[in-house]
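Catalogue entry: protein
Contents: sequence, fold tokens
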Amino acid sequence: MRRLILALLLTAPFAAVAEVREAPPHAYQPEKAVVEPQMLGDARTPTYLLALPAPAAAEQEALKQHNQSAGKGQPLKIGFGRELEKQEKLALAALAWADIDSGRVTRIKVSSPGAAAVRVAMSLAGAPEGLELRFQGSSREQVFGPVVAAEVVAQGEYWSPVMEGETGQIEIFLPKARSLDGASLSLTRLSHLLAAGTDLHPNRLKTLSQIGNSANCSIDLACIANPSGALTDASRAVAHLVFTSGSSTYVCTGTMLNSVYSDGSSTQIPYLYTAYHCIGNQTEANTLNTWWFFEAATCGSTAVPSGYQVVGGGATLLYAVFDTDISFMRLNSAPPAGAYFAGWNAATVASGTPAMILHHPAGDLKKFSQGDPASGGGTQGYAPYSSSRSANFITMRYTSGSTEGGSSGGGLFTYNASGYYQLRGGLLGGAALCTNMAGLDYFSPMDQGWASLSQYLTPSSGGTSTSTVWEFYNSILNHYFVTAMAAEANGIDSGGAGPGWSRTGYTFKAYPLNGSSGSPVCRFYGAPPVNSHFYIGNSAECAGLMTVAGLKYEGMVFNLGQPSGTSCASGTVPVYRAYNNGYITGAGANHRYMTSYSVYQNMLSAGWLPEGIAFCSAP
């Protein structure tokens, strides 16, 4: 395993600079020329075929009925699950392979008659180093991949990208001098999509009801005479989202936001803002595909746009809260050239502000809706959405266009005096329809999520008295790791610490270094056989360990409170520590730090050793 990259560790996450609460848009600038992936084999490559029978008409009808009853406030369903009659577990050594210059290839085709696209869930066991997978649909030439075996293994159940057409093709590549003994690929589930990509437009979807057949008040961007550059830039930041939950596939809308350093320069990190009711957990985020530039070429056109691009690879969920309906994530794959990072503003939105939303109503081509205060539209203040959510939401009335299912997560934009649009929230739901123009829509309040979003969108700004400590888990090592450094966390997300790492979703709060709260916590890395990090809050113990061979001191990382005996001071939260006894068992010594007592008890039940309360975190 490669050791974590820690070069940025001591650039304090609590820099004392003025807080920034807004940012302009910024053009995405690819780091390098994109090389389009290609299949390695050819028409002669040996292929294993798994062909399902045509689905029952009742399955398609059930999907239509679901969407007709769901309305806004739920993601639009475009695909249903099909359990395979027998879960295909393929011994890779038993498949036929073809030799190519760099190794061997084989293919698996999975077909579901009548599908506009398919996705396949799979798991991989015993895969040798260097094994790769590539994916391609039968109706589009785009190839996704290569996906390395470790990524598939790390997810447990891995969902393929959306493969357009009724047949999906999985190509497996094995480098030379690698053995397949004991390696197997299990195909467990399939999602049969009634609409995807080239079929997400009215010509096909009028027959499917409630999918892609957006109402007649919807406005194509191409219908706007002389659109401003500001509108065009905002549109390039909006993506059509396709994701799978269970075995069903859904669509929503999301917006890529500009993250900025204190000097105003863009971090170029692809952060995506959408709705919690669309993607609320990491399992769903893993399945995310994004469609870019999916909009009409000319006003009223139902032709499939020729320039749209699809990006697979899923996303890493960073912040997801039911009460505010905010879901915020980092795309695992780079966006396409020509995409934009949208501007944003985390201030409270005043009532009577002109505003617009860019969205994909009913899964259709991108549409534009707006509210003009002069005609009774625009923002209408904040109000509760339902008794089950504690937040107050931004309310909006349209005077041109409206929203539908599939618009969920679509960004609410207001115009800045400097001449650009800024995102203020994402669509939750509401009563607004083309047939009810007086109805209100409700948008997630970005200002109420700012305390957590700021660490990503303004990573070098101050203004907060605490910082989030994120937990990661390595499925290969069975190790845990925590960090409060956004740059380090992003490096782990992008693979900089080696394979197998993913966020668990658990966090706790730390105090700033050199602040008045808590005391400094130092961090050490133990070389193999330890191969792990650990944290010390006692200054004398920290100083003593600096001279121990095999331990690398990595500095003070944040402040935490220290327990008094077996308890923490009032107003702080206990951080429990468990130890895997790995130094003795040979598994590599590792500690887990957690604020949940029930999780702590679960770790002890799994054989970890109790070490009680190690620290006291900020509330």
